[in-house]
Amino acid sequence: MAPPVIVLGVGRSGTTLLRVMLDRHPDLAVPDESYFIPQLADRQRSHVDVEAFLDDLSRLPTILEWEIPLDEVRTRLRPGMPLGGAIGAVYETYAALHGKRRWGDKTPMYMQRLPLIERLFPDARYVHLIRDGRDTAASFASMPAGIVTRTWAHPRNAGEFACQWRTEVEAARSLGARVGDRYLEIRYEELVADPERQLRRICDLAALEFDPAMLEYGGRIDVSAKPHQQSLAKAPTPGLRDWRRELSAADVTAFEEVAGDLLRELGYDASVTSTAPGRARLAWYQARISAWNVSSRALRRSPAWKRRHPQLSWPSPS
């Protein structure tokens, strides 16, 4: 099986736009956000027990939403296969159901678990979409209530969002340094200004032929239930967000105190470099995220996970 194409990017960086473009390719299936990889990885050992793996799949809402028949996944599994291969079998089933040979993933929350993704899929191709973090923060702040999951581990203001943006961008770039030519960095601003050129670069990375269908997603995506994704109904549009208009001066300063030097390194203008209070805020954020990941892994490995995730009602085979 050809290697998967993994889209990396901080939430609100335009990764959904890129996913939709890539999913239009006749050979590549990139579904909506999966969420389940860390759950399966924390539940299973490095080599899977087929029945235990299928039992876990039967409890995951995403698998049901993707309409993946578990019996079809079973045919792709073998006893003792590596966990990455078993998870890949889920995506391969999805791709086959859509008449495609290759699969990809776009789930921004995986930016917190990149060493895991790297270990599971050792031949993956990575496309890292980077957007000016202040525009990303403005987009995050504008999301409707109820769309963003609010927990103690999630950002609540521009300064906290800067911590997330910096941590995740640096993690992805570190991954890129490890995997070399299997990693490609794309700027969101360049993607919306000249999508064909950037998509051709991605196709070269993934060993895919460029297909004009990738540019023809407008009007073909149902965003009626996604108020935060209405821009997908039109062609790529530069300047949808402008932090200069949408963020207060205090928010801009708070963001740049954490990530100003990284903004400059990436080619974005910043008037404030990182400061001691910004670095302290960043360290506190990273400690919180580390604690959150530890507690999440412990929960998934405990009997409480099955109690919180009862088996779902699956439609009878037709």
Please state roughly what percent of the residues sit in beta strands, choosing from under 5%, 5-15%, 15-25%, 25-35%, 35-45% or over 45%: 5-15%
Q: Compute the number of structural domains.
A: 1
Mean pLDDT: 91
Write the element-wise H/E pattern from the N-terminal end onward. EHEHHHHHEHEHHEHHHHHH
- Radius of gyration of CA atoms, rounded to a whole number: 20 Å
Bulk shape: globular
> What is the annotated CATH architecture?
3-Layer(aba) Sandwich
The CATH first-level class comes to Alpha Beta
Strand sequence of the main sheet, in spatial order? 2-3-1-4-5
Sequence stretches where pLDDT stays below 50 over 5 or more residues: 222-230
The multimeric state of the shown protein is: single chain
Q: How many helices in DSSP terms? A: 15
Percent helix = 40-55%
Helix-and-strand structural type? alpha/beta
Number of strands: 5
User: Can you say what the CATH homologous superfamily is?
Assistant: P-loop containing nucleotide triphosphate hydrolases
CA(first)-CA(last) distance: 28 Å
- Any idea of the CATH topology? Rossmann fold
Could you describe the 3D structure shown?
This protein is an alpha/beta fold. The protein has one domain (5-216, 240-308): P-loop containing nucleotide triphosphate hydrolases (Rossmann fold, 3-Layer(aba) Sandwich). It has 15 helices and five strands. A five-stranded parallel beta sheet has the order 2-3-1-4-5, with helices on both faces. The longest helix is centred in the last third of the chain and has 25 residues, at 276-300.
